[in-house]
Amino acid sequence: MTFVFSFDHRYENNPMKLKDLLGGKGANLAEMTSVLELPVPPGFTITTDACRAWLVSGWPEGLDREIEHHVAELERRMGLRLGDPGDPLLVSVRSGAKFSMPGMMDTVLDLGLNDRSVEGLADRTDRRFAYDSYRRFLSLFGSVVLGVPRERFEDEIALAKKECGAATDADLPAAVLEQLAARFGEVIEQATGSPFPADPRAQLRLAVEAVFRSWSGARAVAYRTREHIPHDLGTAVNVQVMVYGNRDENSGTGVGFTRNPTTGEAGAYGDFLVNAQGEDVVSGTRTTLPISTLGELFPEIHVELLDIFRRLELHYRDMLDTEFTIERGHLWMLQTRAGKRTGPAALRIAVDMAHDPAIVLTPAEAVSLVRPEHLEQLLHPQLDAKGRAVLTRGLSASPGAAVGQVCFTADDAVRLHRDGKRVILVRSETSPEDVHGMQVAAGILTARGGLVSHAAVVARGWGIPAVVGAEEVLITADGHSFMVGDTMIREGDTISVDGTTGGVFLGEIPVVEASTPPELEQVLAWADDVRRDLNGMQVWTNADTGPDAARARAFGAVGIGLCRTEHMFLGDRLPVVRRMIIASTPDEEMAALAELVEVQRQDFEEIFAAMDGLPVVVRLLDPPLHEFLPRLEEIIQREAEGGLDDETRELFAAARSWHEENPMLGTRGVRLGVLKTGLYAMQTRAVMQAAANCQRAGGHPVAKIMVPLVVTKEEFMLVRGWIDEEISAIQSTLSAPLDVAVGTMIETPRAALRADDIAEVADFFSFGTNDLTQMTFGFSRDDIEGRLMARYLAKGLLVRNPFESIDQRGVGELVRIGVQRGRAVRPGMSIGVCGEHGGDPDSIRFFHDAGLDYVSCSPFRIPVARLAAAHAAIAAT
Question: H-helix or E-strand containing 142?
Fold first, then answer.
């Protein structure tokens, strides 16, 4: 097995095919070097295979030999030697996983310096630059590789600046930097008990192992859990010749996007600093310049960079995020990757690139540039701040509105979130150590940092409203309040932040729904076209009322996959339902059912009218009857108080009789139909009467009656007999037959395993994956999510919450079996899913692969599901 590849390896002219092996950064560096022939500092990539091997059994055999070979090649090309006391070669060591994890893993710069080689670097450059590089290397290596607390080095820098009167690090003179380097070496020896390792080969191996180790670090694990990135991928390591943006005033460094990542507007966008390294740009500790200033400071470089940006877009057919350095007038490209963008930007970029005559994205390519999470961001609310005074303004880093209590640490954000509070995390600037607090925050506000700072990039990727670079925000020394002018905002005070405009407001501002950008309908239309052309799944909705159905149809639903009739039994209808439950004679029960027929028919008429011509799956009553009766706690309290009348006493007796300890496994679904033999017949009568009325009015109702929780063929046959009698009775009164079918939900393991039996008598299936998940795992959804799920995910006992995204290896296998066995008996049988998983993009892709015809989700999830269904169809080609 080969563990190391150089950037200029030919890779059959397509390094991106090896992204699993090289990681995203390594694959893109190879693409820029070997395919596009851009100015990239030479280097090599240690593969994810090596990391995975190290994680299992330590340093892989033969890896030293391969690394030495590639180091020797770098030395030959550069005419320098690693650790040479006269003129040293210096390298960076950076992580690079398959999926971008900005700031989550470790980096070491200037590797190869020691007390001797720093003098050689000083002779080749100047003394201040050499010792500035050395102290940076010592602090990074000490903290990242050797585990010395970063604060130890920061305290020494603060003391040095105070003693010599320097305002910033850049003001420290060479002599002080030399003293700092010596002091850092002492700090390392004191903290570790061993001298700093001077041998560059030893430094390199230790740095590579540190990057491997950081894959399992707390912040990387937390990020992957939040982003649903598998924990077994490992990271590649990129070793690259150092180039310096901090050499002089003819040098600089920047982060640039080929288009605006917030709005999608065409044109280079980003931040730049003269005489600085990359960490100075993203850390937020220095005020950056817009990338457009390159046109004034470095006009020739600016032209060259814009040309590279255009070449990258034409090659990748996407908006790119880049890092670049100018070293003494020479431009170097350090990295490129698909740029993280907001929802509005994603839509605009997709449409603009489809219409760009030099790019001309196909509809499938344009749809692929918009992720489901981008559409989810569009649902973020906005502040209705008209007439409200702005406390301060910063940069609009991630759109949407957030209102919450101020807190100043990530740990406090987590604690308050657990207490059910919405929080705004306020920091001078964020770092990867804050990620656990950022992911639970309603919004983020930072005093420093630009649009490519850590806070901005992470918030934008996660869809968290964020305002960064609000320079008027001054956090007080005690860390429990901040000042804006003379106004003090304390911990626990409520503020509102507008990530779309950059505004920050005191108190709670009303929130309004966001307006959608004009490109949304175009992208969704393309998604529908692509899905149809590729025989992808349809998107239906879960709706229980006429208004819900109309809203869902406006969002693009082409059917109702779940109409829950139990929702029609609440409110002012509850007394009638209770009379049906406690009826002591068949006549009393039938009288109550007759009343329910009337109200249910009206409901169904509204739904059929809203979905005219489209299928409506009506689920007959599913939940246990005790849900319509008083709770046991209420019974006990009322009895203790005394004075119950006969009617209430009868109701409470029924509640006790129907109460179940484990209702998910009890008397519900089809079992109710068996016990209350008139119930399902009444509901079917209401459905059929409503459909008949709609048809007489000129409509085209499509009714699909669904029996829940069936586990045997015989069970379904019994109930279907009653249903068919009601259908026939209505059909006989009509001049033209109604479009009606009778099917069942597959929501138990037995139903999935015996789907062939049930398919003999059922017209269609719909998987109820919520219950199927509970019964397959033996989990109670409410209990497991409330008590254990966070721990299960953190410990890797589960990769994903199975109630959010389908468990493909367990529950998913039952779905596959049910589909295969059902269609073996009834080819072409309509099969869908109506659980919560119907709106989850990853689950949608699985359902497509499993052969389902449609997914059904809540109305507000329909645009996301339409896009995800198109992505699933594209991925399957």
Answer: none
764, 765, 766, 769 alpha-carbon torsion, rounded to 10°:
180
For 474, the 3-state DSSP assignment is strand
- Which tens digit of pLDDT belongs to each residue from 270-307? 999 998 887 777 666 677 899 999 999 999 999 999 99
What are the C-alpha distances in Å from 120 to residues 74, 113, 407, 651? 18, 9, 48, 92
10 Å CB burial of residue 612 (0-12, 13-18, 19+) is middle
Tell me the C-alpha distance between 837 and 814, whole Å: 15
With the C-alpha atoms ordered 369, 375, 381, 387, is the resulting torsion angle positive or negative? positive
pLDDT at 328 over 60: yes
Number of neighbours of residue 647 by Cβ within 10 angstroms: 10
Q: What distance in Å separates the CA atoms of residue 368 and residue 365, rounded to the nearest whole number?
A: 5
Are the beta carbons of 767 and 815 closer than 8 angstroms? yes
Rounded Cα–Cα distance for residues 636 and 652 (Å): 9
| Confidence category of residue 330, pLDDT binned at 50, 70, 90 | very high
In 3-state terms, what secondary structure has residue 314?
A: helix
Active site amino acids = 454, 834
Distances (CA, A) of 370 to 311, 316, 319, 535: 21, 15, 11, 20
Is the pLDDT assigned to residue 659 strictly greater than 80? no
pLDDT the model gives residue 839: 86
Coil, helix or strand at residue 387: coil
Spatial CA neighbour of 449 closest among 477, 470, 476: 470
Bridge partners (DSSP) listed for residue 427 = 446
CA distance 173 to 169: 9
Q: What is the pLDDT of residues 720-771, one digit of tens each?
A: 999 999 999 999 999 899 999 999 999 999 999 999 999 999 999 999 998 8
| pLDDT confidence tier of residue 786, bands split at 50, 70 and 90 | very low
Dump the DSSP string for 830-857.
EEEE-SGGGG-HHHHHHHHHHT-SEEEE
In the chain, the largest separation of any two C-alpha atoms, in whole Å, equals: 104
Q: Do 473 and 122 touch, CB atoms closer than 8 A?
A: no
Rounded CA gap, 98 and 22, in Å? 7
Q: For residue 855, what are the β-bridge partners? A: 539, 833
CA distances from 692 to 75, 248, 855 (A): 84, 83, 27
Residue 657's contacts (CB-CB under 8 Å, 6 or more residues apart) are none
Which secondary structure element, helix H or strand E, spans residue 159, and what is its range? helix 150-164
Which three-class secondary structure state does DSSP give residue 195?
Answer: coil
What would the two tokens of residue 353 be? 């690139």
Decide if 116 contacts 181 (C-beta within 8 A). no
CB contact burial 244-261 (16+ within 10 A = b; e otherwise): bbbbbeebbbbbbbbbbb
Lowest mean pLDDT among 68-82, 162-176, 323-337: 162-176
Are the CB atoms for 719 and 745 separated by under 8 Å?
A: no
| CA separation for the pair 108, 94 (Å, rounded) | 7
Instruction: Supply the pLDDT for residue 679.
Output: 82
Query: Which among 460, 464, 462 has a CA at the least distance from the CA of 450?
Result: 460
**Phi–psi pair at 604, nearest 5 degrees:** -65, -35
CA 248 from chain centre, in angstroms, equals: 41
Residues belonging to the chain: 877
> Rounded distance, CA 284 to CA 397, Å?
13
What span, in angstroms and rounded, lies between the C-alpha atoms of 24 and 34?
Answer: 15
Q: For residues 11 and 18, is the Cβ–Cβ distance under 8 A?
A: yes
Average pLDDT over residues 25-43: 95
DSSP 571: G
**CA of residue 30 relative to chain centroid, distance:** 28
Residue type, 622: D
Closest CA to 473 of 406, 394, 572: 394
Q: Give the DSSP per-residue string, 503-535.
A: EEEESPPPEEPPPPPTHHHHHHHHHHHHHHHTT
